Amino acid sequence: MPSALYAVLVTGPSMAPTLRHGDAVLVRRGGRAVRPGDVVVGVFRSRPGLLVVKRALRATDGGWWVQGDNGLVTDDSRAYGVLDVQGRVVVRYWPRPRWRFRYPRV
Fold first, then answer.
1. What distance in Å separates the CA atoms of residue 19 and residue 70, rounded to the nearest whole number?
2. Is the CB of residue 77 less than 8 Å from the CB of residue 66?
3. What is the pTM of this model?
4. Which end of the chain is more exposed for a tag (fewer CB within 10 A), N or C?
5. Any bridge partners for residue 24, and if so which?
6. What is the chain's alpha carbon radius of gyration, rounded to the nearest angstrom?
7. What gap in Å lies between CA 29 and CA 22, rounded to an integer?
8. Is the pLDDT of residue 98 over 80?
9. At residue 44, what are phi and psi to the nearest 5 degrees?
């Protein structure tokens, strides 16, 4: 299956300081496998109607245990369990691209 890019708008503070409310990112569906430390987009099995952006920590139960970069916000796997990943964030393109910016690995 070929990989596809699509845009996602970040809402809320859970990924600050890496991503902030209002940032727009490109997400790659397919391509290389998700690795711990990647910033991913997906849905929690317990909240299938909510698309979220989080950092992948470890593979578990056929999905991923994820956490936001803002430790004060706990709307991640600590509250909702396993995430089914739909894609991997490859670049933030709005506002002002950070050229050569790589998301830090955990």
1. 10
2. yes
3. 0.85
4. N
5. 9, 94
6. 13
7. 21
8. no
9. -75, 140
Extract the tokens encoding 8: 């996602």
Write out the H or E segment, with its range, that includes residue 79.
Answer: helix 77-80
What confidence tens digit (pLDDT) does each residue in 43-54 have?
A: 999 999 999 999
Q: Which CATH number belongs to the domain containing residue 88 in this structure?
A: 2.10.109.10
User: What distance in Å separates the CA atoms of residue 16 and residue 61, rounded to the nearest whole number?
Assistant: 27
**What is the span of the domain harbouring residue 82?**
4-94
**3-class secondary-structure state, position 34:** coil
- Domain annotation covers residue 49: yes
Unique residue bearing structure tokens 């964030």? 89
Residue 100 domain-assigned (yes or no): no
Is residue 51 within 8 Å of 6, Cβ to Cβ? no
Position of tokens 């991640």?
A: 76
